[in-house]
Amino acid sequence: MTLEAQARGALKRGDLPAAAAAAKALAESCPDQPAGYFLLGMAAAEAGQIAKAVPLIRAAVERGPQAEYLAQLAKLLILLRREGEAADAAHRAMALQPGDALTLDTIGCVLTRLGDHVASLAPFEAAVALEPDNLEYRYNLAAASGFTAKVDEARAHYEAILAADTGNARAHYALAILARQTMQANHVSRLQTALAAAERPEDALRIRYALAKELEDIGEADDAFHHLSTANAAHKRAIRYDFRHDAAIFDAIEALYGKRLETLASGTGNPDAAPIFVVGMPRTGTTLVDRILSSHPEVASAGELQAMPLAVKQMAGTASRVVIDPETIAASGGVDPTAIGDAYMARADHQRPKGTPRFVDKLPANFLYIGHIVRSLPHARIVCLRRNPMDTVWSNYKNLFASQSAYYAYSYDLMDTARYYQRFDGLMALWERLCPGRVLQLGYEALVHDQETETRRLLDHCGLFWDPACLAFHENRAAVATPSAAQVRRKLNSEGIGRWKTHEDGMAGVRAFFEAEGIPVD
Questions:
Q1: CA distance 406 to 420
Q2: What share of the chain in percent tops pLDDT 70?
Q3: What stretches of residues are TPR repeats (predicted)?
Q4: Stated pTM of the model
Q5: Is residue 49 part of a domain?
């Protein structure tokens, strides 16, 4: 057996010391050949040593730029948040016309992480063609199909997965949210069977969310609430969430900005006027406004970029492993705003679509960074979506966000979500006091009730000329990778207004809290 075969075999069975030893011997015996360096890099990556792995795989690419090497390099660069380099490596890998399914799927996953869902279709389709029984590859293709409005294709792939694996929780959940279910066509019975058989807590979580969504679709509100509350309570226990974590972040922002913006580090900021930030609590219409704006000929959507949180973290230079924490917020106050603006634009440039002068960054959590945006990008426009607080809480509670994301950890408890909304509301009031008129606070209900007037107000705030295409946002064919995908492909309607009232008894504590805090709920 050759040294390369030994190293690959050891990697496959998880014997990292043996893999590293064989790869090192190969690199030393054939220093001009790429395989040893690549396999050494893969052993380091499997051990979690990503920063060590990257230069080794780069050394392999320099000696022989194979698609497999470039795809794995791109994957590691994504993990290091080096999106521009990752994109370059992924495109180089695809150009080499890879012939193995793993490399193709890896390229597709990198493109997905970069927000290029349309481009991800080709490698995913090729991977499934080569290995049709690989359910992971088929799931990735199904998700990309759903993101790009290929709903029938997505449904067929999810059903194929469930035919092979009846308990596949990810496929069950994805099918439930792909479209609205009806009394005549739903998966409730199948989901109940899958839930009874679920052994892992993460599977039960997804299946209960799927059941809740479908039961609500068909009017079974009480059963929907039961499954949601059961799933959320279990997940909150599992992640050990404590609202004090988020409260400390709000406290730190208010401490930093609660005096006056002028008292912070001086700097002119980056003058680029291209970004339009769409912010707010999740599930309040941010995707809808993103679609409206990106229907304009001068605007394209870049999706939910991490560029601002990462730029602030990078410039603050704090050692913590999380992107946002009180220490990072405090340290960011002493950073030259121009440096943050430059870092943001450099990161955003790798993911913003080309061909339009403006782009939308619709990361909802950027409302935490409005102070940074105002100072570091003085010509950027900011739009904050506001929705009835009761509907906001209910919509956050009933949607399964990235289950390990710290951004949405509050959403597994109704009262935590209400408290989070109260702090969000207070922070938006602070921004309005500090920089009046800088943020357009756009009401979801107002937009639904008077679409043209509010759309004109939105475009005017963003410095865009009127274009009637913005009223036909549902005809926008760009990819959507959020739970709102099905809704924003339909005409604007009022179905989402007052939905919390279906669960009025369960929401009574939230209502009492808001009334005590002086937050109007009607």
A1: 13
A2: 95
A3: 101-134
A4: 0.89
A5: no
